[in-house]
Amino acid sequence: MAFEHSHASHCESGVMSAMLRHHGLPISEAMAFGLSAALSFAYIPLIRINGLPLVAYRMPPKSIIKGLQKPLGLKMRFETFRNPEAGTRRLDELLTAGQLVGMQTSVFWLPYMPEDLRFHFNAHNVLAFGRDVASGDYHLSDPVFESPVRCPAGALQKARFARGVLAPRGLLYYATGKPSAPDWSQEIPKALKKTTRIMLDAPLPIIGVRGIRRLANAVEALAAKGDPAQTKMFVGQVVRMQEEIGTGGAGFVSFTPRSCRKPPNCSPGHSSMNWRKRWSTSATNGANSPSQPPA
Fold first, then answer.
1. Are residues 147 and 135 in the same domain?
2. What's the half-sphere exposure (Cβ side, CA atoms, 13 Å) at 9?
């Protein structure tokens, strides 16, 4: 299969950018992230990752994949499996048919990952674009790596069927049709307004701006507990989730400004950067989101 790998900041947005480019619609990783309205925030103490509260800086897994379908007219198929062997057979069938296949995996069981980066996180997305006949290894495009990688069949099966929070259940996904270029002047403002609603108007106090405040209160309360080791673990978890998982540090430092740049053929009245500034101001002041994009 003729496939061009590209290095990306994060897995799901990088996978979708590569998949869209492969099917004839070249868009950047940042645009894939922005167009799917994936920027968010959640602090969920009830869900634990490595024994510590979940802190998320984006919408849940698969939100980017599914969020791009409507604006791009992209038809996709998703398949999960109860039986690991059936999941492996289906992957082989799709690759034999020349299909580029997305997969959800566990970081911990991917042997090409450096050991100090392996941990039990089950929502890492990669693309499969071939298999070596001699060794049986799969050719993978992992967006967080600069070059394509190889993965033994047994290890990939283990990564696809890992158990725990966000268990992949062997998830495969692939395009069943060609994407089409959207009307940027319509789709970009829609994505921006959706993101604004999520950040400012979410009904749950653990989501969006209110979730950020709740996490800040939790950090302030750590000192009163008198447990320096637990404090380091908690703060370390926040930083790790921000910098290593799902559009965290890159999301707020450089990713978002790039995804919010004025899209092609977008009228000045819908300047996405102006909309972003108003959202930022509203978030800082704790005000409600503006009901209309800037005129």
1. yes
2. 22
| Model pTM score | 0.79
Type of residue numbered 178: K
Residues of the chain scoring pLDDT < 50: 248-257, 259-262, 264, 266-295
Strand 101-105 vs strand 124-131: parallel, antiparallel, or unpaired? antiparallel
Helix H or strand E segment including 201 = helix 184-201
Question: For residue 95, is it within any domain?
Answer: yes
Strands 76-79 and 172-175: antiparallel
**Judgement on whether residues 59 and 45 belong to the same structural domain of the protein:** yes
* 111/66 same-domain check: no
CA distances from 86 to 59, 82, 104 (A): 30, 8, 16
Domain match, 155 and 130 both: yes
Residues 120-153: tens digit of each pLDDT: 889 999 999 999 999 999 999 999 899 999 999 9
Q: Are residues 86 and 115 in the same domain?
A: yes
Q: HSE-up of 18 (CA within 13 Å, CB side)?
A: 29
> Phi, psi at residue 261, to the nearest 5°?
-65, 155
The residue out of 176, 208, 223 marking a domain boundary is: 176
Tell whether 1 is covered by a domain.
Answer: no
Please report, for residues 12, 92, 183, the alpha-carbon distance to residue 19 in angstroms, rounded to integers and kept in the order given.
Answer: 10, 18, 20
Among 65, 41, 69, residue whose Cα is nearest residue 55: 41
CA gap 56, 143 in Å, rounded: 20
Number of domains in the chain: 2
Residue at a domain's end among 149, 176, 203: 176
The whole-angstrom separation of Cα 213 and Cα 205 is 9
3-state secondary structure of 139: strand
Considering the domain architecture, whether residues 67 and 192 belong to the same structural domain is answered as yes
CA 269 from chain centre, in angstroms, equals 29
